[in-house]
Amino acid sequence: MSSAASSRPKAVPRGRADKRNAILNAAFAVFARRGYAQACVQEIAEEAGVAKPTVYSHLNDKETLFRHTVETAADALMAENLTAIEHLRDRAPDEDPRAALTDLAHRLARICCGERAHALRRLTYAQVAQFPDLVEIVQERTAHRPSAALADRLARLSLAGRLRPCDPEQAAEHFFALLTGPLESRSRLGTRRVPAAELRDTAEAAVDTFLRAYASE
């Protein structure tokens, strides 16, 4: 066998990958329901439909399982946010940005107030003393990377003359703050379900305030 072939990483068998995903999904459900301290690996194994030793063979111990569970949930939220932001690419560059930004705000508001996002925030903040680094990881994946993607889209709108010349990174930060700040308050930090009408009103108010500052004259 050639050295190139021997150095090539081995493919993970599909069965093993599926089991790992099932374990992580089950772990998120149990951790969200019980909290870190009260959750037990046996319950996670039962929820995943695997034997308890199988959980340990994939994730070593409860702490490792929790870390990977939080990171996987953060990755899923990041993907949802980036997909929502990607929709801005589909809008014509000469279109009034209000419609595009309102559509984006509605999508992001639904994600922000979804059960996965609420559960992830509760888990992360509840365990901040034991896992302080997870706050930074979650923020990077669910806030900083989407903000960077939005900055790119806002820069293009600015170049097209649809927004005034601006620092796109700061503009993206302002957009998210105008949207997520009120949603955090209305959801009582993720403990209250925000009705659809409130989500809509909050999203539209965020866009209105944003455009008062950034719309081209």
Span between termini: 67 Å
Mean pLDDT: 90
DSSP helix fraction: over 70%
Strand content: under 5%
Give an overview in words.
The protein has 217 residues and is mainly alpha-helical. It has ten helices and no strands. The protein has helices spanning 3-7, 14-34, 41-48, 52-59, 62-86, 97-112, 115-126, 132-159, 168-186, 196-214. Helix 2 (14-34) packs across helix 5. It is elongated.
Q: In short, what is this structure?
A:
It is built from 10 helices and no strands. By secondary structure, the chain is mainly alpha-helical.
What characteristics describe this protein?
disordered N terminus; 217 residues; mainly alpha
Helices and strands in order, then pairings?
Blueprint: H1 3-7, H2 14-34, H3 41-48, H4 52-59, H5 62-86, H6 97-112, H7 115-126, H8 132-159, H9 168-186, H10 196-214
